[in-house]
Amino acid sequence: MCYASTNQPHWSKGELQLVRCTNCGMVYVNPVAAAMASGEFYDTEGADYYLSPAKLASDYADVRFERELRLLRQFCPRGAVLDVGCGSGGFLFQLKKRWPMDYEILGTDVSGGPLDYAESKDVPVVRGDFLEQNFGGQKFDAVTLWAVAEHLAEPKKFLAQIHAALKPGGVCFVLVPNLRSLAIRLLGAKYRYVYAQHLNYFSVSTLGRLGERAGFEVVATRYTHFNPVVIWQDWRGEGREVSNAERGELLKQTTALKQKPWMKPVKLLYGLTEKVLSILGLADNVVVVLRKKPS
Ligand SMILES: [Zn+2]
Known about the structure:
Elements: E1 7-13, E2 16-21, E3 27-29, H1 34-38, H2 47-50, H3 53-59, H4 66-75, E4 79-84, H5 90-98, E5 103-109, H6 112-120, E6 125-127, E7 140-146, H7 155-165, E8 166-177, H8 182-187, E9 200-201, H9 204-213, E10 216-224, H10 228-237, H11 244-258, H12 264-279, E11 285-292
Parallel strand pairs: 4-5, 4-7, 5-6, 7-8
Antiparallel strand pairs: 1-2, 2-3, 3-9, 8-11, 10-11
């Protein structure tokens, strides 16, 4: 974030060491495993999770990207949208399905298997390292990073590259796990998302600064999502490793539950809780909307 080299130990969990920058407060994994730094993990070991039937079904459920779609509509009602780290393409698929006339879509990722799936769903993709692409000179009205920046060894470079790929006045959406969430306040390193795949642990201030340093202005901040089941399980599980199969199974269960009609009153209460936590800045994720200055 700031290229200062002074840091202090923050958390350790198994082999994972996290430090906190004494200059800017950024919390990050140090050292970073080679397969994570290169993104190779997502094309090899990570693939079983990202391609599991449970994960795919969840990615393509109508309810999965409700909040993200609403936010995109608010700040980018039409135009060309690039989803960086699109995985199996669920977000772009929903966007095109709901508003086919308003958007032109493109996805990119380092992970081949999920991209094959995206293409089978008519989501156009570009393969490979985002930092090495220029999309034939095409510029976008919006670029989205949904739960991607926490996986990146060099998030600053990504933000700079996104800045270059946007039209003047274009917007970038960055959603990451919230370091100040209720879940992390209660669980600390026991939280399942403190794990090898997550290299960066952002708060709203470090995330905003990341955008500003890349030349953006922060035009909106939101806190979204709340999963009490995860908190409950991790609390009881004492921070043990949660397998990919288990992660997938939980996704499947919650996705199925969300669609049951008798869940209406529970959803209402849940929605209210999420709203309160969002207002307090304690929800699971933090999102910033960044705007490239109009030239
Ligand atoms: Zn720093």
